[in-house]
Amino acid sequence: MGRTVTGAFFGGIALVCAAPAIAQAPAAGDAAQIIVTGEALPQPLGARAYGTVLIDRGRLTNSASGRIETVLADVAGFQQFRRSDSRSANPSAQGATLRALGGNASSRTLVLLDGIPMADPFFGYIPFSALVPERLSSIRVTRGGGGGAFGAGAVAGTIELASATRDALPLFDASAFVGSRNAGELSASVSPDIGGGHVSLSGRWDRGEGFHTTPRDQRVAATVPAAYDGWSVALRGVAPMGAQTELQFRGLVFRDYRTLRFAGADSASQGQDVSIRLISRGAWQVDALAYLQARNFSNIVISSSTFRKSLDQRNTPSTGIGGKFELRPPVGGRHLLRLGADLRLASGDMYEDAYNAGDPANPRTSLRHAGGDQATIGLFAEDDWTLGPLVLTGGLRADRWTIANGFYRAVSAATGAITEDSRFADRSDWELSGRAGALLRLTDAIALRAAGYTGFRLPTLNELYRPFVVFPITTRANAMLSPEKLKGIEAGFDLTTDGLAFGATAFYNRLDDAVANVTLSPTIRERRNVRAVVAQGIELTASARIAALTLSASYAYSDSKVRAPGEPFDGLAPSQSPRHAASGTLGWEGPSGAGLSATLRYVSKQYEDDLQSDVLPDALTVDAVARLPLGHGLTLVARGENLSDARVVTRNAGGSLDLGTPRTLWLGIKLAR
């Protein structure tokens, strides 16, 4: 696949570079009116029919943890595979989903940064630790099946991250924090104007000795805190190519080390991403981009009975490559038409060595190698039709997907004999998906909306080909997994008045052929397609501003059930799916940047497994942030996570527990000039 990947990438670069020829040339008198924003094309008005939630920069830069997954938790219904954040979770388990469609280490939600998918090409997890909130201007969350570019993976919704524009960034800023358990966090950025454009170079490093994820009564001599140490560097540049055309470049390099539960249980994830994007805001609007991702992951599993190495997942290199071309032709004042195509390729390998943890010599027993390739090529068209107070929107996608070159090979370390050599048949097919919605403004304050949609997600290379063990449970891979397919409808309203906004949405989603870890015995699970996961419920959002006080809140009620006739889990809630989730933040903004805020979050109980035998109890946490300006661009900041020191259970495997972040305090200083 290497030649295909390379050719597609350079083809995408050529597509981007050729795009100005399609854009309308500026008039001679416009030559001096060059405005570089660094933004994407405007969000279509019809997108509001699908019930979006916007997180602004003020909230992004004012969270107790300083981590993006905590900010995303403001959106009730957002969940990771487990409740741990990116300091104490296994990186490969950091999938993101919405609407209680079932916990999955792979993301059922499409996460985009400046229009580019961020999921790991092999595992499908999101590298949350590399997505620094201070580098962003906003996050737009759309719950429900997606459309448009890269919509093939948006079965639960879309999370769109937008990089901070030059007007939101000071020329120089830096921060330094010290926290509980010898934690530290340093970050800095410089964002100068260069010619008619600008560049932003930023870096962040954080580390900590970590907390004990293991409850006190389950600790042994080998138990250690969940230490972490990670860094990332990002470069973004924006350059004008005409009065209404600009070229955007983004590069990201990151590395993240973590230790989980036992001494020697170390993991490392790393990545190098690069992308180039062309935006033209002429009469013929163009959005064209190409990207390349190189990722890797390693992980050592320690036996929880002998505390010796049982598995060394020493190398998991993967490559993601893709691009899109979107054209918005001038078809009339009442229509906004989007036409385009996108391409995503993923290739990855897993190299791991198994060890006999029961033998004091801890010999290596087996060498394993698995991997494969995936490709999705999509064509899409969407149109918004404005008829006075009514906006009608609809779109279609046609995707050609391919799963190819899949294999799993195991070799005896003692004899060199091949113990398993499986080659899996190539598969391909077409998927047609679409969405439609309506937005009706009854008054300036009240809007009604309704929508319906379909979508699909390919199983990841990890789900297809890589078995894994979390003692005492072995989970088998399944090379014959089918794509997940979603059908959904929703309806709601939005009320907006001076200083007050309230929104409500009722939804019904059905995820057919949902990929789940199905229990076959007390120690064996297997990834399988279950007939369906059906989720229905309501989502509420509210915000208010009264003088210097602000309030934002959200609540999600989800009645989610598995449909699997004849199976013992038929009618049960899917794993990792709480029925209730709520979040609320009360803030005060004082003069000269002073401020206080407190965030209350609640998640009801959920289950670790498909048979509802292992319970994760409900959890209520309180976070807070205080800012005190000192003058000359300096601000003193105090942050507190889980101030009540609530016990948050993140994993339960037959009574073997992991816990989430305990009370954590931070004190630091920020400089902006």
Can you walk me through this structure?
- With 673 residues, this protein is mainly beta.
- It has a single domain, classed as Beta Barrel (Maltoporin, Chain A), CATH 2.40.170.
- The protein is 5% helix and 57% strand.
- It has a 27-stranded mixed sheet that branches. Strands 1-6-7-4-5 form a five-stranded mixed sheet. Strands 2-3 form a two-stranded antiparallel sheet.
Task: Explain the layout of strands and helices.
Layout: H1 2-18, E1 52-56, H2 57-60, H3 68-72, E2 79-80, E3 96-97, E4 109-113, E5 116-117, E6 136-143, E7 157-163, E8 172-179, E9 183-190, E10 193-194, E11 197-208, E12 228-240, E13 245-259, E14 266-280, E15 285-302, E16 309-315, E17 318-328, E18 335-355, E19 364-387, E20 390-412, E21 418-423, E22 427-441, E23 446-457, H4 461-465, E24 468-470, E25 473-476, E26 484-497, E27 500-521, E28 524-546, E29 549-563, E30 580-589, E31 595-603, E32 606-607, E33 615-616, E34 619-631, E35 634-641, E36 649-653, E37 656-659, E38 664-672
Parallel strand pairs: 4-7, 25-28
Antiparallel strand pairs: 1-6, 2-3, 4-5, 6-7, 8-9, 8-38, 9-11, 10-11, 11-12, 12-13, 13-14, 14-15, 15-16, 15-17, 16-18, 17-18, 18-19, 19-20, 20-21, 20-22, 22-23, 23-26, 24-25, 26-27, 27-28, 28-29, 29-30, 30-31, 31-34, 32-33, 34-35, 35-38, 36-37
